[in-house]
Write a structure and sequence with these properties.
By secondary structure, this protein is mainly alpha-helical. The chain contains five helices and two strands, in the order H-E-E-H-H-H-H. Helices cover about 45% and strands about 5% of the residues. Helix 1 crosses helix 5. The longest helix has 17 residues.
């Protein structure tokens, strides 16, 4: 029960912080804009919504959301990735590592190396911050 309360409090704090993020209009956005959407992860208790990219970040992706994901991983784990905007082998490996740890596996939705809405919302809920763009 305490874990659920801690998660809910962390998610609420994130939701308040995320409210200040500017989201680009999906149809007009270019590859230089990280397009975001509101997402409700069904595996996370509560009614909080998370701002996540409106598409999966996967091996070979090279758009504006990739460096943001790399920076978030570096912020949490230290300077482990080169922030180059390329979702390459190292970014995929760190995404899989994150998905497979007990800290995230309960809400990440699997270990596939793809930073989709479940993985990213779980990461944001557990870490209480986000920075896109």
């Amino acid at each position: 029960m305490n874990r659920a309360r801690l998660i809910a409090a962390s998610c609420t704090a994130f939701a308040l912080a995320a409210a200040s993020v500017i989201v680009a209009a999906p149809a007009e956005a270019s590859s230089t804009v990280c397009r975001l959407k509101s997402y409700d992860n069904p595996l996370i208790p509560g009614t909080e919504k998370f701002l996540v990219p409106d598409y999966d970040l996967s091996y070979g992706s090279t758009d504006a959301c990739v460096p943001s994901w790399q920076r978030q991983i570096n912020h949490r784990y230290g300077a482990v990735l080169t922030v180059d905007g390329i979702f390459g082998q190292n970014t995929r490996a760190w995404t899989r590592l994150i998905q497979g740890t007990s800290e995230y596996s309960w809400c990440a939705g699997g270990t596939d190396g793809i930073a989709g809405p479940k993985t990213i919302s779980c990461f944001e809920c557990e870490n209480g911050y986000t920075s896109w763009g």
